[in-house]
Structures are given as C-alpha cells and as structure tokens.
Specification:
CATH topology: Rossmann fold
Mean pLDDT: 85
Low-confidence stretches: 83-91
Number of helices: 6
Oligomer: single chain
Distance between the termini: 15 Å
Number of domains: 1
Number of strands: 5
Helix content: 25-40%
C-alpha cells in the first residue's frame, strides 16, 4: 500500500484545521489526525507560578498516543478510508494511494514524529493578527487575563526558534494572513505533485 503523510503546523489560530479539512474534501482516500485530540485533561496539565495552565508545551499532550495512532493508520490506512465522490472520480488512478494529514501546533519539536512525514507546512501569523484571532475564540478552559502574552505567544516563539535552528528540518513556511483560497491552492498543488511522483 502506498501512502503519503503531510504535516500542517501553525501558531494558534493560524488556520491549520480549516486548511486540513478543506484538503480532506478535495483529496482521494484522505484522513486527518489532529493533535488537539491528544490533550491531557485539565487536572493533569501543569500550572506555573502565575497561575497559567501550561497547555502550549509538549508535556500537556499524550504525544506517545498520537504517534501510536499515526503508526496504526500507516499499518492499515484503508480501514479508515473516507472517499468523497468528487475525489473518487478525479483520482481513480490513485485508488491505491492513501493520504494522512496530521495537524497541530507542536508537531516538529517531537522527535519520534520527525521520520513520518512527506512534506511539512508551517502557517505563521504576526503577533497582532494572532492575538486578534485568539481573542475571538472561546476555549475550555477559558484563557485567563494575560495568558496569550504570558504563555501562548512566548511558547510559539520558543518552538519556532528551535525549529529554525534545526538545519536538517525541511519546512515550507506559509503566510497565514493570506486568503484561505490562496493557501489551499498552494498546498493542494504541492500534494498533487507528490501524488504524481508516487504514480510515476
């Protein structure tokens, strides 16, 4: 069985989930695994001296379970197969290729995931736009006052810097302020190129 795996990573509210869902609807045999599904319960997430719950760190997630889920999909991608009629008609010749999109906010800083990718995308946002988008979302538990500046943004910068210092990491940085259509078109074309390479 042939399969391709694409990783979409972004700053909070960068648009990765929307992008992944749209791609899933356009691509043959495509599934999504979301990092948000692996958060530990609130009682297991550490709190710092300021009272901030430390959600934007790897320790707040069951990362080993996430890796297991990805590996299980790789063993049997057809069992979770989701084919839309539209993608079926367009890609009959690619029926034996399965695609997994993994989306999250902390993917490339976790070593066991790094061997599992075909392509990596990183959606970035400037501080002001990121803060504006974050303020329009409702979280459970809700963001406490100062949480974005005190925890979320510093952690994003920390992990992004780690990533940029890792010369061996091939990452395609995307501007999250661009329209969803533009981002979708770019990533979709890229994935189709990968599929065509596999077909050749």
């Amino acid at each position: 069985v042939n399969f391709l795996q694409f990783f979409s990573y972004s700053v909070t509210n960068g648009g990765k989930t929307t992008l992944a869902e749209k791609l899933k609807n356009m691509l043959p045999n495509c599934d999504i695994i979301s990092q948000d599904d692996f958060f530990k319960p609130e009682s297991e997430v550490e709190t710092d001296e300021r009272g901030f719950k430390l959600y934007d760190v790897l320790d707040a997630l069951y990362m080993d379970e996430m890796v297991t889920s990805i590996r299980n999909w790789m063993k049997s991608p057809a069992s979770s197969r989701a084919v839309t009629e539209e993608s079926q008609n367009t890609y009959d010749s690619l029926n034996n290729v399965y695609i997994l999109i993994v989306e999250g906010f902390l993917l490339y800083n976790y070593e066991p995931l790094n061997e599992l990718w075909n392509r990596r995308y990183f959606l970035t946002l400037p501080y002001e736009e990121c803060k504006r988008r974050r303020s329009t979302r409702v979280y459970q538990p809700a963001d406490t006052p100062g949480y974005f500046d005190g925890h979320v943004w510093p952690m994003y910068l920390k992990y992004k810097n780690e990533l940029e210092e890792n010369a061996s990491m091939q990452v395609d940085y995307l501007d999250g302020t661009k329209s969803q259509e533009e981002l979708l078109s770019y990533v979709y074309s890229d994935i189709i190129q990968e599929l065509n390479k596999l077909r050749e």
